[in-house]
Design goal:
The complex is a heterodimer.
Chain A (H helix, E strand, L loop, with lengths): L1 E4 L2 H5 L3 H14 L2 E4 L11 H4 L1 H17 L7 E5 L2 H16 L1 H12 L10 E5 H9 L1 H7 L8 E5 L21 H8 L3 E2 L13 H4 L1 H17 L4 E4 L2 H9 L1 H8 L7 E3 H8 L17 H4 L10 H5 L22
Parallel strand pairs in A: 1-2, 1-3, 3-4, 5-6, 5-7, 7-8
Helix pairs in contact in A: 2-14, 4-5, 4-6, 5-6, 7-8, 11-13
Chain B lengths: L2 H8 L4 H7 L16 H5 L10 H9 L3 H6 L2 H4 L5 H5 L6 H14 L11 H15 L4 H12 L1 H16 L13 H15 L10
Helix pairs in contact in B: 9-10, 10-11
The chains are: A alpha/beta, B mainly alpha.
Bound molecules: iron/sulfur cluster (2 copies).
Chain lengths: 329, 203
């Protein structure tokens, strides 16, 4: 299956690890990406605050370029790995369909650049949704070579993939499970913690640091309380806030969190047998290597298995608890 | 031009109508607010807001234009869409927050709010987008922080070095090939937005 691909500004640089690992994973799963030629920035959360119509036209240019891509002969699908890009592309398509007046205005603007876009002609997808819904857990499972046994992961969805859900992905806006399922397929131990769809603070780190650090702290604290080794994300903004600001959170609140924040595609790549370097491990601020060193060859004896009788003559397993440092308060 | 905007020239609009007309993208349902408070209770930055979204909507209904546009509330909205998926009336809350930001900028009110730097952050961000077609983190960080937080710019420098060392930040912006096309589109869009979707923009 061939999809259009809209990497977005973050994946070009700050979230290069996401881009690289996404390509590794896509290749293994037989997903073909064709980058939308000459795409521009989606405007993040900034353009709509300044000029709404220009904000929609900015995104409209990307949709118009994506619609022109000759992919499968059928309706084009455009994959965005960044949550904000995904939201802005889907929102523009959705509101242009809802409001003929907006569609007409965006199209008059696009015409100044020789372009046009008919709402609904591109189906915007998030990378996670494509992997879970189109490819499916079974196909993913077939690719697993090095299961992530023993790694406790906190799936962090954040906001914009699950809310407001203009694309009707098959999941819940407040208690999504699709990434949980995916990580289980990889062999990881998935932590069910209460803040997985809370906000990372978005651009607040730049505007009101107090507000942002508190939002980041709540997420780190919950992941630490539930003894997660890694927070797993699907968004460059969430990754940046939780990873690059973790030290500042520690300073500000006198805490001591050391929770690496990785993209779900990085863990998929590792489980598929790719090297850490191939999936961009090493670009994170909070070093992921100590956590990844916890990955075991064998599935750990979890609570359910413990109840079943151990094989005769088996040595007692060390308790998993002793491996986990609480990390902070 | 939509009917509301046209009407606005002939007869005075209520503040509510003005907000609705300036919010593109289908029916905002703003006038259906029940004052149930679900939005405020769901808001992650609610504790820093001068008014909860619910209060703000009551103030809009009451025509308290100045107080609404001076409120810091829209500037603390992080676009998390929690309120929007929970609102029983399906009010486009997040979009209305964006509209209020635009109105406050246009009328110069935001300078009195506690989040007075926020518009400049957005402006600086889009300035790079308009000139290059892509965002540019290093340029944004340096220009914005030197202007607004010269002291924290030193802290930001450390942060920037960390980003550079990890190959996570470019030293130069990337320009798209067809920047002329993008600029023509944006110029036209701004022209068209005079008179619709923009507060009081009728020329
Ligand atoms: S949740 Fe909706 S109906 Fe309830 S107060 Fe907020 S905006 Fe009004
Ligand atoms: S979208 Fe804005 S107003 Fe609504 S809950 Fe999130 S931060 Fe609060």
């Amino acid at each position: 299956m061939k999809y259009g691909y809209y990497p977005g500004c973050s994946l070009e640089k700050n979230a290069r690890a996401y881009h690289e690992s996404a390509l590794v994973v896509a290749k293994r799963l037989g997903i073909e990406f064709e980058e939308t030629p000459d795409w521009n920035c989606c405007g993040a959360t900034e353009y709509f605050a300044i000029n709404a119509l220009a904000g929609y036209a900015l995104v409209g240019r990307n949709l118009a370029l994506a619609a022109r891509q000759k992919l499968n002969g059928q309706g084009n699908q455009l994959v965005a790995p960044c949550s904000a890009c995904f939201l802005n592309l889907s929102k523009t398509d959705h509101y242009m369909a809802e409001s003929p007046e907006l569609a007409e205005k965006v199209n008059s603007a696009l015409a100044a650049g020789g372009l046009s876009y008919e709402p609904g002609s591109v189906r915007v997808r998030h990378l996670l949704d494509v992997i879970v819904d189109d490819i499916g857990y079974m196909t993913v499972a077939e690719q697993v070579r090095k299961p992530l046994y023993g790694l406790r992961v906190a799936p962090y969805y954040g906001c914009l993939v699950v809310r407001p859900d203009y694309q009707h992905i098959h999941d819940e806006p407040e208690y999504p499970l699709c990434m949980d399922g995916l990580l289980k397929v990889l062999g990881a131990e998935v932590v069910d913690y209460p803040v997985k769809t809370h906000c990372c603070g978005g651009h607040m780190t730049q505007i009101s640091e107090e507000t942002a650090l508190e939002m980041i702290r709540r997420l780190l604290k919950s992941a630490a309380d539930y003894r997660a080794d890694v927070i797993v994300t699907l968004c460059p903004m969430c990754q940046l806030n939780l990873d690059a600001y973790q030290e500042q959170v520690n300073k500000h609140f006198g805490a001591d969190y050391h929770i690496p924040v990785l993209y779900f595609t990085q863990l998929m790549g590792l489980a598929f047998g790719a090297s850490p370097k191939e999936v961009g491990i090493g670009k994170e601020f909070v070093d992921a290597r100590p956590a990844l060193a916890k990955i075991q060859e064998e599935p750990p004896q979890n609570a359910k298995q413990k109840r079943s009788r151990p094989p005769k003559g088996a040595l007692p397993m060390p308790s998993m608890l002793s491996h986990h440092k609480g990390g902070g308060q | 031009m939509n009917a509301l905007t046209r009407a606005s020239r002939a007869s005075p609009q209520t503040f509510m109508q003005e907000v609705v007309a300036a919010t593109p993208g289908g029916d905002t349902h703003l006038e259906l607010c029940l004052q149930c408070g679900t939005c405020g209770g769901s808001c992650p930055s609610g504790r820093d807001m001068e008014h909860t979204p619910r209060q703000l909507f009551a103030m809009i209904a009451a025509g308290m234009r100045d107080e609404v546009l001076k409120s810091n509330t829209p500037w603390y909205c992080v676009s998390c869409y929690y309120c929007m998926v929970r609102c029983p009336q399906e009010i486009h809350i997040t979009d209305i927050m964006y509209t209020l930001k635009r109105m406050a900028i246009k009328e110069g009110y935001y300078q009195e709010s506690t989040a007075a730097d926020a518009p400049d952050f957005s402006e600086t961000f889009i300035d790079f987008v308009e000139n290059y077609g892509r965002s540019f983190e290093l340029g944004l960080a340096t220009r914005y922080h030197l202007k607004h937080h010269p002291l924290s710019a030193i802290k930001m420098a450390g942060f920037g070095l960390g980003m550079l060392a990890r190959g996570r930040m470019d030293l130069r912006p990337t320009k798209i090939q067809n920047i002329d096309q993008l600029q023509a589109i944006l110029t036209k869009a701004k022209e068209l937005s005079n008179g619709s979707f923009e507060p009081g923009g009728a020329s």
